[in-house]
Amino acid sequence: MLKIFLKKIIELILVLFFVSLTVFFVFRMLPGDPAQMRLGLSPTPEALTALRMQMGLDKPLIVQYVKWISNLLHGDLGNSMIDGTAVSKMLMEKIPKTFELAVYGTIMSILIAVPTGVLAAIKKKSWIDRFSRGIALFGFSIPTYWLAILLMLLFSNWMHWLPAGGYVSINESFTGHIKTLILPVLTVGIINAAQIFRFLRSGMLEVINQDFIRTARAKGLSKWMVIGKHVARNTLPSLITIIALNFSLLLSGMVVTEQIFAWPGLGWLTIQSILSRDYDVVQGAVLISAVIIVVINLIADLMIVLFDPRIRHTR
Prior knowledge:
mainly alpha; MetI-like fold; 14 helices; about 80% helix; globular
């Protein structure tokens, strides 16, 4: 177990190193000058040169990268090039909002996908299975932005039940907070439920056809005993993997949902920073997203090893 943990930690460090290289150098290849965007459309050459020196943009890229990494190792993510706000402060304001959306969306997707996936696998080729697969195919195929717009039109424009977007703090209004939360959570939950359903159903069908399941049935165990004790236990590692992967991707990649519903989370901040060429904010947001993905996948891998001793002995 310790050997696996150390191996994963080394992989985590290498992934974060390459992510830092990629986000730093690739983003600086894009057109646009943050100093010019800060000064306006027609700055004087003297003012532009002075601001670039102040922001450190006149130094070679490798020098800028080394300085950024050095500051990062000391816990300093830098400051926004637009208004000077600390990047760490900006991220700490946005991450809880994205985390809240991801948690509720994941819970909803599990509540939808797990019962329907289990039922579809047990009732293979029945109308329940065909209906569930049809709904899952719809959820898996429809683009996130299209589903978000459909829900917005239905519940906001036509029925006038929910606000079309925005964010209301729970401290301001509990009811208002819940209302602004419903549509983005529905969007996230439906899309991810379709993915979890497909993996769960196929995983259970694969286990059900194994020899040890037929042996368990031959011993006289009831159908639900076989499903609960043997099938579910052997399907659990793959289910943990897909849930952890979806959750980490939600935390780091909920850009479309947050943009459509004007949800001021990490994805929304990343897009706004890219548009304004705010290098330090984008670097901090992408790096934090990478950390989230890698750490959650590390936790998921360790959980799988605990639940499935066979993996422990093969590594």
